[in-house]
C-alpha cells in the first residue's frame, strides 16, 4: 500500500507523504541529499524504481500501474543515467576516431603511440584534477576533457610532423621539433 511505501522510505532516513484518490496515488518524497550530487540522485531514482516495481508486481492491476518522477533530484538522477551512457558512447567513438586520424596521418604504430601518449596523459591528469576539485565530478568538469582532447590531438600531430621533418636524430631532433 502507499502507507507501507511511505513507512519504508521514512525508515530509510527520508521523509514521505502519501495521498490517496479513487484512481491515483501520489507519493511525495523529500530527499535528504543534495540535488547537485548526481551519484546520490541516481541512487535515489534506482531505489525508488526498485521499490515501485515491487509495488507494481504486488498490485492486482499489475501492468496498469504507472509512475513518473518530478523535481530537481529526479531530473538530476535521470539525466545522470542518460548522460553516463551517452558519454561512454561518445568517448569510445572519439577515441576510435582520434586513433583513426592518427593512423591515417602517420601510418606507423610507433608514431601513433608517440602522438597519443601526451594526449592520454594530459586527459588523465585533467580528469584526476577534476575529481580532486569537483567531487563528485560534474558534467561540466567532464566537458573540459573534450577541450583537452581537441587541443592535445592538434599539438601531438604538429609536434610529431615537426619531428619527422627534422634532419637530425635522437635528442637533438626532439629539441629542434620543440623549438
Can you describe this structure in just a few lines?
By secondary structure, the chain is mainly α. The chain has six helices and two strands.
What level of helicity do the residues show? Answer: over 70%
Distance between the termini: 74 Å
The low-pLDDT segments are none
Outline the biggest β-sheet. 2 strands, antiparallel
- Strand-pairing-aware structural class: mainly alpha
Strand content: 5-15%
Secondary structure elements and pairings:
Elements: H1 2-11, E1 15-20, E2 25-30, H2 38-58, H3 72-106, H4 109-133, H5 139-165, H6 170-178
Using brief descriptors, characterize the structure shown.
single chain; mainly alpha; 179 residues; two-stranded antiparallel ribbon; elongated
Descriptive notes:
The chain has 179 residues and is mainly α. It has 6 helices and 2 strands; from the N terminus they run αββααααα. It has helices spanning 2-11, 38-58, 72-106, 109-133, 139-165, 170-178, and strands at residues 15-20, 25-30. The radius of gyration is 26 Å and the shape is elongated.
Amino acid at each position: 500500500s502507499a502507507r507501507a511505501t511511505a513507512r519504508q522510505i521514512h525508515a530509510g532516513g527520508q521523509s514521505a507523504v502519501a495521498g490517496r484518490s479513487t484512481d491515483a496515488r501520489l507519493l511525495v518524497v523529500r530527499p535528504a541529499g543534495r540535488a547537485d550530487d548526481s551519484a546520490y540522485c541516481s541512487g535515489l531514482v534506482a531505489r525508488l524504481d526498485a521499490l515501485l516495481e515491487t509495488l507494481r508486481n504486488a498490485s492486482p492491476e499489475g501492468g496498469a500501474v504507472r509512475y513518473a518522477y518530478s523535481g530537481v533530484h529526479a531530473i538530476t538522477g535521470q539525466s545522470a543515467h542518460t548522460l553516463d551512457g551517452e558519454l561512454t558512447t561518445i568517448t569510445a567513438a572519439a577515441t576510435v576516431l582520434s586513433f583513426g586520424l592518427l593512423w591515417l596521418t602517420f601510418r606507423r604504430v610507433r608514431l601513433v603511440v608517440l602522438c597519443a601518449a601526451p594526449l592520454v596523459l594530459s586527459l588523465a591528469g585533467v580528469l584526476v584534477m577534476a575529481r580532486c576539485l569537483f567531487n563528485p565530478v560534474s558534467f561540466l568538469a567532464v566537458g573540459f576533457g573534450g577541450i583537452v582532447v581537441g587541443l592535445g590531438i592538434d599539438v601531438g600531430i604538429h609536434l610529431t610532423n615537426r619531428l619527422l621533418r627534422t634532419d637530425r636524430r635522437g635528442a637533438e631532433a626532439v629539441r629542434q621539433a620543440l623549438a
